Amino acid sequence: MNGWTVTATAALAAGAGAAVWGVATGPLARRVVAQNLSTSLACPVLLLLAQGYHRPSYVDVALVLALLGPVGTLVFARLLADDLTEDPPRAAVLTYAVAGFGAVVVLAACVATGPGRAMAKLLVTGALLIGGNLVASRALSGGFGRGRHG
């Protein structure tokens, strides 16, 4: 084991426990936030494992997850809009903590990788991960109003 895999294991243990607890208990708002947390945390874990095991293919999986995870959350936000307007989720601290963790992991992986095509892929993955997480969390909390004329 190296530092990359130890960090991935710790992040996965803490994040998976919180996500399972959030999905299994509580109101709808907590369950949707836990789903967003699980996809937002799995991506940095995959990036850490890619560095730890020297498997660049894990970065591709993380890239797909960074793209599709927030889309799934936005689908839930749209389908459950009526239920979520009554009691919108409030997880701003958790959202910024996970986004910050993702940023730190992406920057550390970029430093370890060095300049090149792999670094560009890591930066795109990080941008999708952080941007998607923030947009999905904002949509869950009701931050995007409906159209002015519709």
**What proportion of the residues form beta strands (DSSP E)?**
under 5%
Overall average pLDDT? 88
Structural class: mainly alpha
Shape summary:
globular
Number of discrete helical segments: 6
Number of strands: 0
Our measurement of the CA-to-CA distance between the termini, rounded to an integer number of angstroms, reads 56 Å
Q: What ranges have pLDDT less than 50 throughout 5 or more consecutive residues?
A: none
| Helix content bin | over 70%
* Order of helical and strand elements: HHHHHH
Radius of gyration, Cα only, in angstroms? 16 Å
Describe the structure.
- With 150 residues, the protein is an all-alpha fold.
- 82% of the residues lie in helices and 0% in strands.
- The chain is built from six helices and no strands.
- It has helices at 3-24, 28-53, 57-79, 81-86, 92-113, 117-140.
- The relative contact order is 0.15.
